[in-house]
């Protein structure tokens, strides 16, 4: 760290949140310009819809989405048409604020008329998506997968996927959404930052138990039940590649405006957090992409009211240390010289 500024150029610059530093003329930076904007919920939904229009069969891993407030009339009309054509269809939708993170402001609805059309939706746009009602359950709980993906370069496009990730569990047994249980966030939302406040949250020293586990431990369980884990991995890899292909055009525009070709500048790489939900039939669905996934390897524990201490988290350590180590190996400038 350079608290007083740096005097000599570095091989690798590791920024905290976003890439903006006009004094870097060489080396590599762990952020792409414009990545934060490109993976916001609305921008991601637009990019995915463009691809769904062009290649509907290839991009069927992203839930049907509408952008609020601008597409509210379209959302209402499309849901009405679908309900008229199939009266037995009883959908649930999930509303996510565009800039929200850590589960902030997310809520479930059964009907378009339930959208909270307060002043905030005008000033704070959102995405409304079809809620996936048939998730794969483990120990009767819904969970999602946080996978770490290294985008090493845009031209040529070079992507690496970490072999292990985190499985983050809800803290109440799952039931399909009904008007009575829609508000039960610990049952429907997998966000770690929400569930950690549940009295049922289990901090575990083992990677196989608790409210946060390794993805590999889930794969072991699925494999022992006879699931085709190889096919699941290949579907996940395909989802990651297609998602990045959908985001690439916008990223290139940001990149070229920030680092014009022919001018000295750094090259970029970035670790992304992909949040994926497995359906009952083991089909992976993309929930969102995080430009700044947490790399913390400890969690806060409340010793007494208002008194916290940081406790090591073996699951986070196992997955994240490997992600950062392998990223540094992959971008190591000395490797080319050797």
From TrEMBL:
GO terms for cellular component: ciliary basal body. The keyword ATP-binding applies. Keywords: ATP-binding, Ligase, Nucleotide-binding. It comes from the Eukaryota. One of its GO terms (molecular function) is tubulin binding. The keyword Protease does not apply. One of its GO terms (biological process) is microtubule cytoskeleton organization. This is Tubulin polyglutamylase TTLL11. It comes from Manacus vitellinus (golden-collared manakin).
């Amino acid at each position: 760290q350079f608290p007083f500024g740096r005097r000599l150029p570095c091989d690798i610059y590791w920024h905290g949140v976003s890439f903006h530093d006009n004094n870097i003329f060489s080396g590599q930076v762990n952020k792409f310009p414009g990545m934060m904007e490109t993976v916001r919920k609305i921008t991601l939904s637009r990019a995915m819809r463009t691809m769904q229009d062009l290649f509907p069969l290839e991009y069927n891993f992203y839930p049907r989405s509408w952008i609020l407030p601008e597409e509210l009339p379209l959302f209402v009309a499309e849901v009405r048409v679908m309900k008229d054509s199939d009266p037995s269809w009883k959908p649930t939708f999930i509303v996510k604020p565009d800039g929200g993170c850590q589960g902030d402001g997310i809520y479930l609805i059964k009907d378009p008329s339930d959208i909270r059309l307060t002043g905030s939706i005008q000033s704070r746009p959102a995405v409304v998506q079809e809620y996936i009602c048939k998730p794969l359950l483990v120990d009767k709980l819904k969970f999602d997968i946080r996978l770490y993906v290294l985008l090493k370069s845009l031209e040529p496009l070079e992507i690496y996927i970490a072999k292990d990730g985190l499985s983050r569990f809800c803290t109440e047994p799952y039931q399909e959404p009904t008007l009575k249980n829609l508000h039960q966030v610990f049952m429907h939302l997998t966000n770690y930052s929400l569930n950690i406040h549940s009295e049922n949250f289990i901090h575990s020293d083992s990677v196989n138990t608790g409210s946060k586990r390794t993805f590999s431990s889930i794969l072991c369980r699925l494999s022992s039940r006879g699931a085709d884990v190889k096919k699941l991995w290949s579907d996940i890899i395909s989802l990651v590649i297609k998602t990045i292909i959908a985001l690439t055009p916008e990223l290139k525009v940001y990149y070229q405006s920030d680092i014009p070709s022919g001018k000295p500048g750094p090259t970029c790489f970035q670790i992304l957090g992909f949040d994926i939900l497995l359906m009952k039939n083991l089909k992976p669905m993309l929930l969102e992409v995080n430009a700044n996934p947490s790399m913390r390897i400890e969690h806060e524990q409340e010793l007494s009211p208002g008194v916290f201490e940081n406790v090591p988290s073996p699951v986070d350590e196992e997955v994240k240390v490997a992600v950062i180590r392998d990223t540094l190996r992959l971008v190591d400038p000395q490797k080319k010289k050797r």
